[in-house]
Amino acid sequence: YSYDFCCGVGAECDCSTPPPPASPGSTVAAPAPPLQCGVASAVFSTNPAAAITAVETGKLSFWWNWNIDPTLDLAALQAASPATLAHLNQTFVPMIWGTGEEPTYGFLQDTSDAVMGFNEPDQYGPACCNCDGKQTYSPATSSGWAPLFNPSSGATNWQTTIGQVAAALKGAPRKIDVVSPAMAGAAVPAPGVDCSLDPAVPPHSHFCAGWLSMFKQAALKLKCTAPSGEATNCWDLIDKIQIHAYAKSPSDVLAKIASYYKEFTEDFEGANGRSKKTLWLTEVAMGSSNGTEVAKFAADLMGPTGLGNRAASASGGYGYVERVSWFSEFSFGSFPMGGVTPQPNEAWSSTLFNPFGGLSEVGEAFFSDACQTVGRR
Questions:
Q1: Most CB atoms within 10 A, among 8, 72, 103, 277?
Q2: Residue 7 CB neighbour total at 10 angstroms
Q3: Between vectors from CA 179 to CA 312 and to CA 51, what angle results, nearest 5°?
Q4: Are 184 and 121 spatial neighbours (Cβ–Cβ below 8 Å)?
Q5: pLDDT for 106-164, tens place per residue?
Q6: Beta strands in the chain (DSSP E)
């Protein structure tokens, strides 16, 4: 999902019984650290109360808004403390949304610790006219009009973009992680779908399942310079793989995450010469307008049988999932999901925040015990 999309359409533990001893010679991986939790939303620029509430949870590790700039209204945030403003600025993660060269890459000098790649190049918009109340045109995803839908040409554009990022960060005093292009669809290619065909021309598919897998094969053959200055290929410089997931049940989200782990096992394990990566779930929400229903979805997703299970994948856990940011909007357009077609003009809500401050019931469920507690920087 994209914010510009306009197609029209905590658990208690029983410690009384110790775990069985490990078999001789076996090793058990230590649990991963708690999840780093965040928010995917443009609401902070229009609702300062939501931004302040997010920081005051003590669990906002990062946030992003499909932009290179936080676009915060400092006048509206006058009630916020200097520490809150600093935290919002320091935890913001910019996204290089598409292929257009940014006027300047100076924003990278101010970024927190990472920069995100293209937004959902595995699906075609379509383009949106007048979607911001002005006579402008923008695609719903970065493949609306850009040559990204084809994973091969997407890799070439990635090479150019990463070159610009590396040049801008040359001599930077800290490491900036590179986050992959964000995936909306499935991990594995769909039989019979040719992603080299223009999705704007019927009857070509608007969806390129397995885009990241095909992109990986193309990027491995291209030379890149990482932001650190290291010469490598254009795939292994990626530190994080990011995906998006919208569903009717948490099990569907977890299944999608597991399918990406299976497809990119060597990357998550750092095997076969690949650089070791973690997974970021940077957009997730339930397709519903029922707050209680969405809150249960969030609680189950973040609970001990979901992302709150920080064990390794081999032990049935999701320790390789490092970050999760909830897609938080007061209202957003519905779309077919899980075999269910929404009613005409049906709208969904996923907000973590009440309009005038404070967490909604969904927010209370999301910012759970599974989230890492962070101090204000």
A1: 277
A2: 12
A3: 95
A4: no
A5: 888 776 789 999 999 999 876 655 555 544 445 567 776 668 999 999 999 999 999 99
A6: 36-40, 62-64, 114-116, 127-129, 137-139, 177-179, 223-225, 231-233, 240-247, 278-286, 321-327, 332-333, 347-348
